[in-house]
Design goal:
With 63 residues, the protein is mainly α. The protein contains two helices and no strands. The longest helix is centred in the last third of the chain and has 15 residues.
């Protein structure tokens, strides 16, 4: 996946998580994976990292 300016690819330890998502979101993710050949895990990880970096206010003050 193309990284945004200033981003570096991270390759830390991984873990599995089970989520319940809207069906249309899952379908879109599958289409993106098929078109780009980028794994669903990498697409979701990139999206979550970007979300977290934009929403530091969601963490408690001591984080």
């Amino acid at each position: 996946m193309k990284l945004a300016k200033g981003e570096t690819k991270k390759s830390g330890p991984t873990a599995k998580i089970e989520l319940e998502l809207e069906k249309t979101l899952i379908e879109q993710l599958q289409q993106m994976e098929g078109y780009t050949k980028i794994s669903k895990s990498e697409i979701v990880t990139t999206a979550l990292l970007r979300f977290i970096s934009s929403h530091k206010d969601y963490f408690p003050p001591e984080h």
